[in-house]
Amino acid sequence: RITDAYYYAGWAAFTSKKWGEAVQFWEKYHGLKPDAGILLHIGDAYYNAGSFKEAEIAYEKLISIYPGSEKIPQALYSLALMERKEGKLKIAEKRLGLIVKEHSSSKIIPDVLFTLAEIYDGLKKYDQSGLVFARIFTEYASSKLAPDALYRAARASYKQGQYSSSRKLYRRLIEKYRKNRSEERRVGKECRSRWS
User: Fold this and answer.
1) What's the confidence (pLDDT) of residue 168?
2) For the range 106-112, what are the long-range contacts, defined as Cβ-Cβ under 8 Å and sequence gap of 24 or more?
3) Structure pTM?
């Protein structure tokens, strides 16, 4: 019961955004019941607190202690997000590519690809961002990111001066999502707030 108490106390602290407290509870839990998921949670608490060095240590510990864990793609993704925030875009780009290559069956691949495409977009590599955004809406059509990826692929084409291609992608977006009014409003709102 004590082990469970540490686990749930950690979640209560995490949910209340008391990152340090969450880490303390989860470290005690990990001491009693070593687990890859707890190291991921510890890293996430440090990440949310802005303590990137400590988060990196927790994620790297997960990767080294639990090399076959299904949590590794998420730990690698969190490391890439930190690198992106720190402006280490080339390193983040490499890490994201590694996740796609080595963990292609992970459920986070659409998120990984979207982040990679955003990095390319930020670097004005619109040809690459367009290809990656296109991959999301073609290979992961049921992903919540598919409509945004289709929109971003159209924008990437437009930014390259490929107006015909851009127009076709915008039309595809409208035709595919106009049937679902709530999705249309959500995509429209998202697009206006993120990319206007």
Assistant:
1) 95
2) 106/70, 106/73, 106/74, 108/73, 108/74, 108/77, 109/140, 110/136, 110/140, 110/143, 110/145, 110/146, 110/149, 111/77, 111/145, 112/73, 112/77, 112/80
3) 0.85
